[in-house]
Amino acid sequence: MDLSPIQKRAFIDWFMEHYSMPQRELVWLFDYMLKRDELLNNIHFVFEAHLCPRSMIISVQDHDNRPFRYYKEHVVTTEVEKAFHDIRMNPEESLFVEVIYPNVRHSQEYMSVLEDNPYLPDDYYLKDKDYKAIDSFLDYVIQQQYVEKLKSKIDMALDKGDFQSFNYYSKRLKELQMHDYEGR
Question: Which of 12, 39, 63, 172 is the most exposed place for a label (fewest CB within 10 A)?
């Protein structure tokens, strides 16, 4: 989704109006961003920004002991001045921003500027039980395909009058169905 600088500016304004920044330098940084469309064009609001090569995370949660983090490749800093310098020197580089505030995942304001994180692995939110469920489902699908293949071979053997093949595939199907029945 291509968002205009106007939309991003509106969100930043809303965010600054509703939440006090944990560091006054963040107000300066946001003010700097707000005045530069080129920079706003390269800002992307995402979840899990720490996975991106160049990102900034700002938290206004009281319990967060790291209210600001700036990531560039494998370097992390909590100093706003260093982030400001890099952002000012490289306005053409994509910057992925995540803001953390109460109920952010239910915030219409954040959702209006939220973009997909291109660095988020497809299975990032899956848990162990999800993998087990997927494996179980795949086993079921594979078994059903095998059953259909056996039934097709049984039909072909009947059509050809090949009773030896018919008996062989029927026996395999019966064994498979018995094994499935016992497994329940």
Answer: 63
